[in-house]
C-alpha cells in the first residue's frame, strides 16, 4: 500500500523522496527494522499528519556513510504533527491535537522511563537501550521526514500544545522541541552552567547554537561558541554570543582574549565524532573536542556531551575509530575532577518547560538556529547544503503548514 511520501537514505551522499506505505499501528518489515520488532503492535500509538520535520546533524552521519544505515531507511526523528488517527489504547491524546514528538521513543513503563531516562528506554529496541524514529540501530521505527508517521506509546511520548491556533502560528519555533532545543539545553544543564557562568560551546551547528541560546536562557555571563565555519560563527554572534575560530589554533588563547582567563566554568561538545583537529587545514581527529574541552574547563567543572559518538564507524580515521575507540586524555579529566554527561538527550525532561519559554517569548530559538523552511521534495537539496556547512536548520514542510509562518 502506498499513500505516503518520505525521505529515504539511498547511499553515501544521497537521499531521495519516494512513495512509501501509509503508516499503520503495527511496525511492518522494512529497511532497518529490527527483526524482533517486525509485526509489533502499537494499539497505544497514533498516526500523525507531519506538519514540520527537521533535518539534523545526526541524520548527516548516516547520509555521509559514517554508520551502518541500510539503503532505503526512511529518515527523520524531529517530528511535529497533528493527530489524524489514534489506537484503541490511547486515552488522553485526541484526533486534531497538535503535538511535539520527542525523538526518543519511550515506553513509559520500564525502569529507565520511570526514572525519566527516556533516551535509554529498555523496551523499544531489541538491540540496545534507546530508540528513535528513522535511525540506524534504533529499533527500526519508521522515520518522520514524511507526510505521515506513526508514534507509539502516544499518551506517554507526545507533548500536546495547549492552543492549536497559537501552535500553528509558532510552529517554526516549536518544531525545535523535538530534538535540538532540549538537546542543546541538556548539554548546558549537564555542563553545570547557570547564572553568571562562563560557557564554551564547541560547534556552531544547530545543536551548538541551541546550546548557546539555552546557556543565555539559563543566565550565563558569557557564551563562547567555537567552530571553523565562519558563516556559522557569524550566526552565533547574531544573537549575542562571543566566538572563537578553531582553525586559528589554540582555543585557550582565544577564550582568554574574551574573558581574561584561559578557562571556562562549563563546556558543551556539540560536535561529536566527526570533529576536526584545531589549526589550519585540519583533518578529522575524533577526540579533539573531548580533549580540548578537558583543557579549557575549570577543575571541578563538567562537560555536557550531546555530540554523537558511535560504536561502529565504517569511515573512521583509523582501526580504533572504526569501533568508536578514541584517544581520549582521561588522565587530564581525572586530574581536574571533571564530570562527563553523554548519550541521547532525554527530551521529555525539558520539552514542556522549553515550550513555555517559546510561548511566552523568553527565547527565540528559530532565529538563533536560522530555521529555513523547504518542501519535502527539496529534502535532497537541504541535505546537500547542510552537509556543505550552510548556517541553517532545514525544516521540511510536507503539507504547506509552514507557509507564512515566521520565527517568534
Ligand atoms: P552539525 O554537523 O551541523 O554541526 C557540527 C559542527 O561542528 C559543524 O559546524 C562543524 O564545522 C563543527 N566542528 C567540527 N570540528 C569542530 C571542532 N574541533 N571544534 C568546534 N567545532 C567543530 O551538527 P548538529 O546538527 O549541530 O549536531 C551536532 C552533534 O550533536 C552531532 O554529532 C549530532 O549527531 C549530535 N546530536 C546529539 C543528540 C543527542 O541527543 N545527544 C541530539 C541531536 C544531535
Ligand atoms: Zn536530531
Ligand atoms: Zn521504557
Question: What do these coordinates show?
Answer:
It is a single chain. This protein has 408 residues and is an alpha/beta fold. It folds into two domains: 4-179 and 348-396, Medium-chain alcohol dehydrogenases, catalytic domain (Quinone Oxidoreductase, Chain A, domain 1, Alpha-Beta Complex); 180-341, NAD(P)-binding Rossmann-like Domain (Rossmann fold, 3-Layer(aba) Sandwich), CATH 3.40.50. It contains 15 helices and 15 strands. It has helices at 57-63, 111-114, 154-157, 164-169, 171-174, 180-190, 206-217, 230-237, 251-259, 288-296, 319-322, 330-335, 351-359, 365-368, 379-387; strands at 3-11, 14-21, 46-54, 79-86, 98-101, 148-151, 159-160, 198-202, 222-227, 242-245, 264-269, 297-304, 339-341, 371-374, 393-396. The strands form three sheets. Strands 3, 4, 5, 6, 7, 14 and 15 form a seven-stranded mixed β-sheet that branches. A six-stranded parallel β-sheet has the order 10-9-8-11-12-13, sandwiched between helices. It starts with a strand and ends in a 12-residue tail after the last strand. The model has no long low-confidence stretch (mean pLDDT 97). It binds nicotinamide-adenine-dinucleotide and zinc ion (2 copies). Nicotinamide-adenine-dinucleotide binds at residues 56-58, 60-61, 179-180, 183, 202-208, 226-229, 232, 246, 270-272, 275-276, 278, 288-289, 306-308, 344-345.
